[in-house]
Structure formats: C-alpha cells, structure tokens
Amino acid sequence: MVKEREELILLEGEYAAIKKKVKRKKKKKKMDIIRELTELPDENIVALKKDMVKEREELILLEGEYAAIEKKVKQKKKKKKMDIIRELTELPDEIDEKELIQWYQVLDQTKLLPRYSYHKSLLNWFTEGVMDILSPQEFKKFKDCHIIIKCDEKQINELCLTSEMEEMDAKAFSSAAAWGNNREDVLIVFFVNNDSKRTSKAIELLNRHISLKDGAILYVMNNKNLNNEQRKSEMFETAKICEITDVSFEEECRSKIITQMTSILEKRIVHYLQYIKDDLTKRLRTQAVNASLLEVNAVLKRLKQAECYPDLDSEDAKLIEIEKETEVDEILKRFEDKILYHGYNDDRLYIIVTEESVKENLENLLENQQSVIEIKEKLEICELAKVGVPLHGAKFVYKNETKEEFIADLSFATTGSLMRTNKNQTVAVTARHAFEKNISNAMYVLIEGNVVRLGGQVEQPQNKMECIEDDIAMIEIEEEKRPLVDEKCEKSLIDFAELATCARISERNLEKGDIVHKRGAKTGLTTGVVKDIKIQAVGRFRKPSRVIYITGRENKPFAEGGDSGSLVYQQSLSPEENILEVLALVQGRVNVPIPNPDIICFPFKEGCRTLYKYIEEIEPLKFFDS
C-alpha cells in the first residue's frame, strides 16, 4: 500500500506538470497567432500557416499524452480504493465475538452528557405537544444515537470516564446488534493508536455486527496524529466505506471530547426540529399551529445558544432565526406603547389598550381579524397564592392542621427553595403576598405525613410593595427544626430528570423566546416559553419594572393558583455542568377572560436585591451546594 501510494504521488506530480505544459502551449499558441496576424505582412501568411499546423500537431500529441496520464491517475485512485475494500473484506467471516466485545464499551449519555440529555427531554416535551397536530402517520420519529467507545484502560482512567461506562457484555452486544434493525444510529468514540490497519479492522468488524450506516464517528487522537492529514484521510476513508456520514476529529482532552460529542448529537436534534418546523409552517394557513411554532422556535433558539456557548455575545449567537412578523403583529407593534396586553382565544384576538383612540384605530386596522378590544388604565393580575413535597416546589399552609386538613387546605403557596444566608442561616423564599392574610406569619409543611412548622416570615416593615419585585418574602427556618430539615428535606433544586441538582442565582436577563421551567406546589414541573418582557406597572404595583410573561400549554398551564413563589429556571448551557440557573419567581397571572392566560414573573436577582435592601445582614443568599 505504501509503494502504491508513492507511485500515485509521483504520477499525480507528472500529471500536474503535463497539465501545466498544455496550458502554457495553448496560451503561447494564442499569443503567437495574435502577434503574427498583427505584425506580419500578407506575403508571410503562408509561412505562418505552416508553423501553426506544426504547433497544432505538437499540441495534439501533448494533449494525447495528458489524457493518457489522466486516465492512469484515475485507474490508480480506483485501484487504491479497491485495495482498501479488499483488505477489509478479505478478513475471515467468523469473528471471535468475545474479542470484539472486549474492544468496545457503552457510554451512559445521561451521566456524561447532561446538556444533551436535557435537550433530548425538551425534544420529548415538544413532540408530546405537536402530536395533537401531526398524526402518527405524518410524524417522522427522531432517531436517537447510542454511544460506543473504543479506548484502553489507561485512557479511561486519564479521562475519568469510569463511572460513565458500561462493559459491553454478550447480552448488551446482542441488544446492540438490533439497533440497526430498529433504525437507531450509533456514535462511535474511537481512540486512535498508531496502527492504522488495526483501527480500520476494529471499525469494520463492528460494522459487521452493528449497522453503522448514517451514524457518526469521533476519532480521538494525540496531537501528532491530529496534525497528520494523511492519517486523518485514512480514517475518513474507513468511515466512508462503512457508510458513516458524520466524521469528526478531536484531541485527547476530556472537556473537548464531551463538547464534541454533545455537539454531534445536538446537531441531529436541530436537523430533526427544522424538518418539523418546516412542516408546521406549511400548515399555518389551514391549522392552528402558532403555539407549536412558538415552542419549536424556543427549542431551536436554545440549541443555537448552546452551539455558540460560552460566547453568547458573538455575532453567530445573535443570528438566531426570528419568525417573520404577520400583518397583525406589525399592526400591534405600531401601538405597543399603548397596548397593555394581547393574547389569543382560539382565532379571536384579545387586546387591552389604554386609550379610546387606540381602540378605534385597531378596530379599523383589524377589521379582517376577529378581536375583542378593552380599555383599561392598568393590567390586572391574579396572584397565585392559594399538594407538594418538601421543599423545592413544596406546598405550605399557614396554620397547624391534621394531615387530612393540610391536604384539603386550598389556602397555600409554594416554597421556592431552601437557601442559606452569609451567616449560614437556613431560609426559604416565596411570594410575599402569600402571607398577607396570615397573622402569625408561620409556614407549615408536610414531612413524612406530619404537619411541621418550619419557621416564620422575616418582617420587612419598610417594604411598601411599590414594584413587582418587592413581592418576595424570606422565611427563616427555626433553629430547632434544622436537624429535621437536614435529615428529611432535599435542600437542592430538582431538575427535569427528578434529580437533586446544584443551582445558582443567574445575573442574566431572560429574553423573548427563551424556554424555561418551574416546579410549583399546584402544577409540579412545567415548561413554558417567554412570550414577552415589558417595563410596566401591573396589578397593585405603582412603579414600573421588568415584567416577564410566560406562556404554557392549554392542557398544561405554566402555573396555577398555589404556584406563587415557584422558582423559574433554565439548565446551564455548559456541556459538562449540570447546574440550574434561577432567573425568575412566579407572582401571578394576567386576569383576562381567555384560556391559558400568561403567567407573570419578575427577575429573581431583583427580588434578592429587595431582600438585601429590607433585611439586614443576609447578603449574599446562596443555594445549597452552589
């Protein structure tokens, strides 16, 4: 093979030289003709023609030699490819399965790739909703990827992969062989050594047992091999023969390998969602698909941000596709300063404006759109303090009751989470309006069937509730109850997979189109999309401030009565960290006569600043394990 490659290189060099010579000849011929025709007298034309005939004969011979060389090069390239195929296919048909099993191991993507696992959960959430629109016959199922790794024990230990790997035993191998039959794809993470032949053999043998067609491969190499283009070309050729469509290379660095694996898998989700989005867009005129388009755009936006992480301020991160505004959107945008709220009830548009003249203008402009327009000075909201488990997203009530009474009590709110102050006090946060009718300021929760008083609200006498972020309360856990909390209560926040997860207060601002989650005492874990963000005064609040509007689904609203005080969070964009970024707190919902009205929230960082302002010596508040 080495000799063949050397001959091919020499031949290609000769081919390039001949090609260059032909070009020079053609150029010289053209220039000679021009020069001769413009400079020679008529009597010399005959001699010129003789020279041209001679030149043409030389050129024909040269072009014939050029064509022969070109044909020879093509034959050599074809022979080289056939030699590779023959070398692989001439391996014995009977392969020792035990040896093959020892070469490969299966990776647990949930443990190793937290960001991809989360994005796959978003995909599942979206597809559950869109199934109401697309029938099973129309719905193209997403093909997940199984991850197989080929590396030695030293590499496993150096990259700290032990806990994420499972031995490929005979049972697992037999199960893996069915992946291809079930149209499930495979991502191979292959640590390349210096033996090219053995690398090709290992991949080809796997392909005989598990279909690698349309799958992906990530070659992990040392820096020397990574800079060897010839070696990489050989690896690419092997993958091509096995019909692997996605080939990547990375150096031996745990962080970079995880990032690359995550990126490979997330690209598959993006392509799939783009396909579904295109399908939904075609249905816009005939079906009510606006809610599904809002959701798919939110997930695609999140995946675009993940692709650009950590440089979220880059130009690429800002080039997230925004849906073209409809004619109705453009009309509403012209009056956005005078519109307090707008939302849909099926095909009917519901709008609240501040002035009669705006109402008249909108009625004229929206004559072809079913609409209801009301005039109000201020947007009214319905606060959501009205069953759960301790303590993140837990129900709490205001009086000591029996277990049965506690469960039946409809006057409750949600504990956002346990936190700690700078003096190591254990506290909980919630919405302040939840305590307005509670004279004792006490908070009772249910722990293992027993109603327990955990503590009481810390007074904020100077807090006049002038803006929405003032609607936050802190409950100090009584000292004698701390051992009970330490033993019985989960202090960390619970993520989408029901796992206790580290959290932090995010300094970022939510943006329109962001996908978010909350865990509340009434509705549990829900997912929503940020529909709008405005600086305004709403409800009882006198001063304007940042108000976040979040929409859920009609069959599963983002929040309901009893969810006040729930924390709104996003999963970290880091490929390696499984951290929840807390961004907002649920306050209420818009008080309008339409199904599934938007939920009102305020930035959690601003709520914390309210607590620092009115309660002494607690700054900074932190989540446990942060």
TrEMBL record:
The keyword Coiled coil applies. Residues 45-79 form a coiled coil. It comes from the Eukaryota. The keyword Coiled coil applies. Keywords: Coiled coil. This is Uncharacterized protein LOC111134538. It comes from Crassostrea virginica (Eastern oyster).
